[in-house]
Specification:
Number of helices: 10
Order of helices and strands: EHEEEEHEHEHEHEHEEEHEHEEHH
Bound molecules: 6-O-phosphono-beta-D-fructofuranose
Largest sheet: 7 strands, mixed
Shape: elongated
Distance between the termini: 58 Å
Radius of gyration: 22 Å
Oligomer: single chain
Structural class: alpha/beta
Helix content: 25-40%
CATH class of the largest domain: Alpha Beta
Number of domains: 2
CATH architecture of the largest domain: 3-Layer(aba) Sandwich
Amino acid sequence: MSMKIAVNTGGGDAPGLNAVIRAVVLAAINEGWEVYGIRDGFGGLLKDSEYNGDGVVRLTANSVTGITHTGGTILGTSNRGNPMKWPQEQPDGSIIEIDRSDEIMQEFEKRGLDCLISIGGDGSLTIARRLRDRGLPVIGIPKTIDNDLASTTTTFGFLTAVETATDAIDKLHTTAASHKRTFVVEVMGRHSGWIALFAGVAGTADVILIPEIPFTIDKVFQKVRHRYEVGREFAVVVVAEGAKEIGGEASFVEEAKPGQEARYGGLAKKLAKRIEAECEVETRSLVLGHLQRGGQPNSYDRLLALRFGSAAVELVKRGDFGSMVSLDPPDVIAVPLGQALAKRKNVPVDGDVVRTARALGISFGD
Ligand code: F6P
C-alpha cells in the first residue's frame, strides 16, 4: 500500500537527529512511500508561523544525502512550540496557553498524510501521544542528550554529549593542576545526572553532583580541602544543572512562563564562589551548555539513530501505531508510548556506575 508519511523533530536538538531522518526517508522510499518533513516541530503546520502554514517539505533521497554525520536537524526544531500549550496573548495583555491540536489534525487530513513519525523527548512524545489519542497514527522515536527517557536503554546523542563533556573535563584538569585551581563544570541534566555521572567518572572528577543525590555543601568543601591537604593541589567538580542541596532548590536562570519551561543554570557559578570563600582556593566555573547538543554524532549514536529510523518505518509497515522504538540490547523493539512516558529514567543511586565512582574516591556530596 502506498503511504504518505510525515516526520518531524521536536524539543532540544541532539547529535544523531539527521541520521534518524535519513534512515526514515530511505527506508520509507524503499517501501515505495512518500515522506514529508514538518519544519520546526509542529510550527510548519501552523498558519501564524514563519512558514504561514506551508512548512512541510517533500523529502527525497537527495534531500538526505550526506547528513548522517552532521549535527543539528535539517528540519529545524523548537522547544517553545508545543501546539497543545501554545502561548496566546489576551486582550488584557496576559498570556494563556491554548490547545491547537485541532489545526494539526486538520492539516494532516488536508495534506493526505497517513501517519507521523515524531522524533523527540518527553515533551514532543507527549504531544505525539495526545495526537494518537485523537486518532492520528503516530510512531515515536526517543531523543534526548539527557538520557532520561524510560523504556529505552539509551537515546542517541547521549554518548556524544558525554564525550564532549569528558573532553572538556580532561582539558580543565591540566589547567587546574598548573594553576592549583578548583574548577566547577556545569553540564546539562535538569532532572537526571547521566551526563554528569558518566563524564565525571570517565574524566576522573573529584566531586560529582547530580539531581538524584541531593548534596551537603560541607561535604563538597571537605573533599576539595582534602585534595589540597594531601598534595594534589587542584580539584574538578562536575555538576548537573539540576543538582540541589538537601532541602534546597535547583538553580534557575529563567522562570517557566506560558509555552516555555523554566531554564536551569547558574549552579556552577554559585558553588565556585562558595568553594573559593570557604576553602580559600582559587576557583573558576564553566558552563558547557549547548556545546553538548552540537557537533557530529559519534559512531555509536549514528548507528543507533539509523537503527531507530529504520525500525520506525518497520512499525509503520506493521501498523504498530502508538508505539515508540526503543533500544533493548541487542535489539531495537517497540514499546507503547504510554509506557515510555509514564516515568523518567533516573540514575540508580546504588547502581554500578555510582558504586564505581565511590570506590574511586569520588564524592557525591552526600
Ligand atoms: O536537551 C535537554 C536539555 O539539554 C536540558 O538539559 C537543558 O536544560 C535544556 O535542554 C536547554 O534547552 P534550551 O536552552 O534549548 O531551552
